[in-house]
Automatic annotation (TrEMBL):
Highest taxon listed in the record's lineage: Eukaryota
Biased composition (Pro residues): 30-44, 53-70
Annotated source species: Linum trigynum
Disordered as annotated region, ranges: 1-80
Protein name: Mitochondrial protein
Length: 196
């Protein structure tokens, strides 16, 4: 049960540590047992009696008077400003979710394979389930990609796209990067693997 007299107040997002609330009263309830801690021997320090010639080491600190308790509830801190959409999203149409919506991700409602015909659904699933390598190291592991690269090199040589000449010391070699793709038939089966 919450009571402002028996529950300490917490102040989130505060720059300073709040002083202890003087109106907080530690509840003393006989019904609630206090947790038992393992007993340890008391720590003793040697006591020296102050002599008449030496003043006490620390002067007594006066206790400030406690403010009168008020019957008004403690006001909760409000956020200083309302959340604002970042400027970089001004050119985008963003979904404004409602709290009573059952769909967590509204995009699912408009992107679905159920609206596609059976043949087209097979085609789309075949295209989405294939993995196209992003590098030569990935492609060279599979036989069908190695065969596609061989066919491309044979076609380039047959068309006389270049002439092989000895390299001179002052010339730089032009690099090449393979781009891989898969061509599909209309029913979703793979027509061929293509390497360019």
């Amino acid at each position: 049960m919450f009571s402002p007299l028996t529950t300490p107040a917490f102040f989130p997002e505060s720059d300073t540590i709040p002083e202890p609330d003087p109106t907080f009263v530690q509840p003393q309830s006989p019904e609630s047992p206090s947790p038992s801690l393992p007993s340890s021997p008391p720590i003793t320090t040697p006591q020296t009696e102050p002599t008449a010639s030496s003043p006490p080491p620390f002067p007594p600190i006066p206790v400030p008077p406690s403010p009168p308790s008020s019957s008004q509830p403690i006001a909760l801190r409000k956020a200083p400003r309302a959340p604002v959409k970042p400027v970089k999203y001004n050119d985008y149409v963003m979904h404004q979710g409602t709290t009573n919506s059952k769909v967590s991700y509204p995009m699912v409602a408009c992107l679905s394979y159920e609206q596609l015909s059976n043949n087209y659904r097979k085609y789309v699933l075949a295209v989405e389930s294939t993995v196209i390598p992003g590098s030569f190291e990935e492609a060279v592991k599979e036989e069908y990609w190695r065969r596609a690269m061989d066919l491309e090199l044979e076609a380039l040589e047959a068309n006389h796209n270049w002439d092989l000449v000895p390299r001179h010391a002052h010339q730089k070699v032009i690099g090449n990067r393979w781009v891989y793709n898969i061509k599909f038939q209309t029913d979703g089966t793979i027509e061929r693997y293509k390497a360019d």
